[in-house]
Write a structure and sequence with these properties.
With 580 residues, this protein is of the alpha/beta class. The protein contains 6 helices and 27 strands. The chain crosses the membrane at residues 12-34.
């Protein structure tokens, strides 16, 4: 049987190959499309990151402006206050993680920014028309250009804001009278070289001088003897061998000065040093050696000399001009009626103390006016129990001549005396008529017309002259130790120094406590009460609450410092081509 043979054409193979090619083209197209989408997505993410970095650069630049532009040494401050236009770069290393302990905003990203300043003459003229001097007002535009880069993708933002630069008026108490050296517990312009010396054989009761809190200023420095008790307590951590080191003096347990609890010791010329016998070691001879070149403690610093206005100290004519109460018997003879002699007699008329030609400000009352309560029927009320005669000092009182002051005081004010201030006993504050806290500042100025002495001023002194009083209490006797340790509440400045004036046999027991501060231009510790303690208190804060105007210069004056302020609203925000 014959078979039929048909020719083979290969059409199946053609169709199969065609399908394979078509499917490959479709798959490749899909892969190409997907890769394009992935690339576009990556570009979008990089673009968004770059934009976020650029916007973060704007915020970082604003933060830098607001925190540092009021610093006269900062480049932005100099550019705005001295130039009509300019451009500076801003450090954005914190956004890139280059600052320790601050992670990068976006790892791998970079940011750059610059600030451009352009003064706006029209806006500045508007400020001048409002009454500001031409050299005070400045207004213009700040343009912040910030560029962010992430994976070679760059986006840039430009923000335009309005800025004002105004010189500001000096704040209180820069040009106002008040507490002298308000940040200091003790302020000394000139110190006698033996002021803090411990007498070697003074075993009765060597001097003790303590300042707690506040700063201590000694322009020409001082050498301070250390007693043993202070070496074992307040200065124990300051010394290398506190238990083996030896103090100065016969007993070594008192005297010198205790500045261990002060905020800082300041000096201008010579340093403030401590003097004691230092343990040199077992194999060294002598075992102890006197040292006097070590700083008093680790917070002893050299500073620039203070200007009088920096410490609120002004000439007598300024206080006279600002005074709301003026007593001057020389210029106004009618004021002579306030000047008198005051005499206090001790019990049984034994001794008397007289203050000659003084204006008395006597704040004690009368024991007869003390209400009889059940616990006082058999008691002994004193003048201190009657507070109805408190001395009122509100505002600024200027007195030409000598003053005697003691007792209760109330009000917020300064007592400025061109002469001597005699203190007869405690000076204590009562609440003022409004129920608020009272504050007293006493400023004793030298009378430069006839007092030209250098070593022994005759005026401008605060003199503690204690006395007894036979009419102090109902029983007609005075406690033998009254006024031995007076308490003075207030801030005190004595241009001629502070001293004790008494011939009492108890002189070595007379101490003094000041709640506030003490400042002087002439400090001689040898003339003062035996032990003194100054507990720093800033009465300036209370004085500033007074309604009295203490402004020295009533004209509007501006400091050299500009107050640079950025307005909140944004003038423009736009994204620009990255060219930064």
């Amino acid at each position: 049987m014959n078979r039929l043979h048909r020719p083979r054409t290969g059409l199946a193979l053609f169709f199969i190959l065609s399908m394979i090619i078509l499917i490959s083209i479709i798959v490749y197209g899909m892969i190409f499309f997907m890769r394009g989408e992935v690339h576009l997505t990556e570009n979008y993410v990089d673009s968004v990151c770059a934009l976020l970095l650029a916007e973060a650069g704007v915020e970082e630049s604003l933060f830098t402006l607001k925190t540092q532009m009021n610093d006269p040494k900062h480049p932005v401050y100099k550019m705005i206050t001295k130039n009509d236009e300019g451009t500076i770069e801003i450090d954005l290393s914190r956004l890139e993680g280059k600052v320790s302990q601050v992670p990068a905003l976006i790892p791998g990203g970079k940011a750059r920014a610059q600030i451009t300043w352009r003064r706006n003459p029209a806006a500045t003229q508007a400020l001048i028309d409002a009454g500001l001097p031409p050299d005070v007002a400045r207004e213009g535009y700040l343009i912040i250009n910030s560029r962010g880069t992430f994976h070679n993708t760059k986006r840039q933002v430009e923000v335009k804001k309005v800025l004002k630069a105004l010189r500001v008026q000096a704040p209180f108490p820069g040009n106002s009278v008040g507490m002298v050296a308000p940040n200091h517990g003790l302020y000394l312009n000139k110190t006698h070289q033996d002021s803090f010396r411990i007498l070697p054989f003074d075993f009765w009761d060597p001097w003790g001088f303590t300042v707690k809190n506040g700063k201590v200023f000694m322009r020409d420095g001082a050498r301070v003897d250390l007693p043993k008790w202070l070496m074992l307590t307040g200065l124990r951590k300051e010394l290398e061998h506190p238990w083996l080191d030896m103090g100065i003096g016969w007993t070594g347990w008192n005297g010198g000065a205790n500045f261990a609890n002060t905020d800082r010791i300041e000096y201008v010329n010579d340093p403030v040093t401590r003097q004691y016998y230092k343990w040199m070691g077992l194999f060294h001879w002598p075992w102890w050696s006197k040292v006097s070149n070590e700083p008093y403690h680790r917070e002893t610093r050299k500073v620039e000399n203070y200007d009088n206005k920096e410490i609120n100290l002004y000439p007598a004519d300024v206080y006279r001009r600002l005074a709301n109460r003026l007593v001057d018997p020389e210029k106004f003879p009618a004021h002579g009626k306030y000047v008198t002699n005051v005499t206090f007699t001790e019990a049984y008329g034994k001794d008397s103390v007289t203050y000659n030609n003084v204006i008395p400000l006597y704040g004690w009352g009368d024991w007869r006016n003390v209400p009889n309560k059940y616990h006082r029927i058999f008691g002994n009320p004193t003048k201190a129990h009657d507070t109805s005669h408190a001395v009122e000092i509100n505002g600024l009182t200027f007195i030409k001549g000598d003053v005697l002051i003691e007792g209760w005081v109330k009000g917020k004010g300064l007592l400025v005396v061109e002469g001597n201030v005699y203190i007869g006993g405690d000076i204590l504050t009562l609440p003022d008529d409004g129920g608020g806290q009272s504050s007293l500042g006493i400023i004793a100025l030298r009378d430069k017309r006839f007092d030209h002495s250098v070593e022994n001023p005759t005026t401008g002194r605060i003199i503690y002259k204690p006395h007894h009083d036979s009419d102090w209490s109902r029983l007609g006797i005075t406690h033998p130790f009254r006024n031995i340790s007076p308490r003075l509440e207030g801030c005190f400045y004595a241009e001629g120094g502070l001293e004790l004036d008494t011939d009492s046999k108890l002189k070595k027991l007379i101490n003094m406590e000041i709640i506030g501060n003490f400042a002087t231009d002439y400090f001689d510790r040898r003339r003062m009460p035996n032990d003194m303690t100054i507990k720093y208190y800033n009465w300036q804060e209370i004085l500033s609450q007074s309604s009295y105007d203490y402004t020295v210069d009533r004209e509007v004056r501006y400091t050299d410092k500009y107050d640079l302020s950025i307005k909140k609203e944004i003038v423009s925000w736009r994204e620009v081509e990255p060219v930064l």
